[in-house]
Amino acid sequence: MFGGGGFDSRKMQQMMKQMGIDIDELDVEEVIIRTADEELVFTDADVQRMDAQGQETYNIVGSPERRDRGDSAALEGDDGEADDAIPQEDIEMVADRAGVSEDEAREALEATNGMPLDAIQQLSE
Questions:
Q1: What is the CA radius of gyration of the chain?
Q2: Residue 60 exposed, middle or buried by CB count within 10 Å (0-12, 13-18, 19+)
Q3: Domain ranges of the chain
């Protein structure tokens, strides 16, 4: 596809830049992918963001811990009663990134079905 010679990373980066593709390495602490049945939690992942003409794509490399979404321990608070299942870490992250109180962050997360990025975007509007 790129010619007969060996792989030249500088040439590849130059070609990608000419095509409007930009790749950034992200310094992430944790990545969580939620499906209807489980959560995939990457605590030590390498994440790259590729911006190709305004369309962002994320590449995650690592080994996830799998958690069952139906696990009652994940849905219970410290007092043993079921809560809204929004992790405190998500509330704190949304509050920090959007510059709002934890109560406002929790409300935004509830309104967006626990999706931190959507909650941050909603609070930033």
A1: 19
A2: middle
A3: 21-74, 84-125
For residue 47 the two structure tokens come to 């994440």
Q: In angstroms, rounded to a whole number, what is the distance separating the alpha carbons of residues 49 and 102?
A: 28
Instruction: Give bridge partners of residue 100 from the DSSP assignment.
Output: none
Distance CA 120, CA 124 (A): 6
Least confident of 46-60, 66-80, 85-99: 66-80
Condensed to tens digits (0 to 9), the pLDDT of residues 101-119 reads 999 999 999 998 888 888 9
Are residues 59 and 50 in contact, defined by beta-carbon separation less than 8 angstroms? Answer: yes
Strand-pairing partners, residue 46, are 61
Q: Which CATH architecture has domain 84-125?
A: Orthogonal Bundle (1.10)
CATH number for region 21-74:
2.20.70.30
